[in-house]
Design goal:
The structure is a single chain. The protein is an alpha/beta fold. Helix content is 40%, strand content 17%. A hairpin with a 6-residue loop joins strand 2 and strand 3. The protein is globular and about 50 Å long. The relative contact order is 0.14.
């Protein structure tokens, strides 16, 4: 899979990548003693970045985690304190026990000591660069930096750069990755990076272009081999064709309001308390986020019917596919 492959949606792309790496991998290796199947220098393109969710039941894609991660990123946080409530992964890989090196938002939306000595925010830099010169090739956000080669131990950022181009009045994104775990990493990286791309296109007043992705090592860990077989089996392959495209974003997310809602949700200890959380004055797209965050707490409290009800109450039909 050396040549660029083009897809209209992430689900079809993901099935193809799983098939290529699991059944037709180039290498078997074992970094840090963990066996993987691996292809090098893999490239793909998604022409409709709004069709960013994984509609694959066997993958057990978590919209609760995705929304929490997107909120965490856009807040520009790197603390693992609350994101660990949605995935213990972050607490387990933190080098200092409290922060994450791979908190991409902290390196994009805020100043960061490992990025240009904290002199500017990279988000504002790419906005200024592309407003100054629409044909620029310099609109690059750096995630992994040389400092990480020395300071990062458990949590070494997998993303190298996100680069943006305005061509034909459309904003295109090219993501460069040093390493990509196909199961855990790519599942959520593509939705996150295409979300950033759409936010930037909105800020610049241009249309949304294509998303292109380059993984220098695209791999599957041995612990996920059974999941891959399940996804790719004839019985499990559902052949979804009516993929749900997310509605266009109309504003930067009201991150402070949504953060207060997720904080309030985590304090709730009953169905009554969860139902009392106010979602007034939120646009449909962000009300959906709030409902999904509330559904996560309902699940934690074993309120499965309420969890399902909250997801079914979302405006975007794609979210409702995950109600179960």
């Amino acid at each position: 899979m050396k040549l660029n492959k083009v897809y209209s949606n992430f689900t079809d792309c993901y099935y193809d990548l799983i098939n290529d790496v699991y059944y037709y991998h180039e290498y078997e290796s074992a970094p840090r003693g963990m066996k993987i199947y691996e292809n090098l220098a893999v490239q793909f393109e998604i022409t409709n970045p709004r069709n960013r969710l994984l509609y694959i039941p066997e993958r057990e894609f978590s919209i609760q985690y995705l929304v929490a991660e997107l909120l965490w990123y856009t807040l520009g946080e790197n603390s693992t304190e609350w994101i660990s409530n949605y995935s213990s992964f972050w607490k387990n890989i933190s080098d200092d026990g409290t922060t994450a090196n791979s908190a991409y938002g902290a390196r994009i939306f805020k100043t960061h000591p490992r990025v240009a000595n904290g002199l500017f925010t990279q988000w504002q830099y790419v906005i200024d660069e592309l407003k100054k010169d629409r044909d620029s090739r310099r609109a690059v956000i750096h995630i992994r930096t040389p400092d990480d080669s020395h300071h990062a131990k458990l949590d070494v950022p997998c993303t190298l750069t996100l680069q943006y181009f305005i061509r034909d009045n459309k904003l295109h994104c090219v993501a460069n990755m040093r390493s990509t775990d196909l199961i855990f990493g790519l599942s959520y990286d593509v939705p996150a990076f295409t979300f950033f791309q759409e936010l930037l296109a909105l800020e610049l007043g241009v249309e949304l272009g294509s998303y292109k992705h380059i993984s220098n090592s695209l791999h599957i860990y041995e612990k996920h081999f059974a999941m891959c077989e399940k996804m790719m089996s004839a019985a499990a392959y559902h052949g979804y064709t009516a993929h749900e495209e997310m509605p266009a974003i109309t504003e930067f997310p009201p991150v402070d309001v949504l953060n207060e809602i997720q904080k309030r949700a985590r304090q709730c200890s009953s169905e009554e308390e969860l139902r009392s959380v106010t979602l007034d004055n939120l646009k449909d797209e962000w009300r959906d986020w709030a409902l999904i965050l509330l559904s996560h707490r309902a699940g934690k409290l074993n309120l499965e019917e309420l969890k399902k009800e909250l997801i079914q109450s979302t405006n975007f039909p794609g979210w409702r596919r995950f109600a179960k």
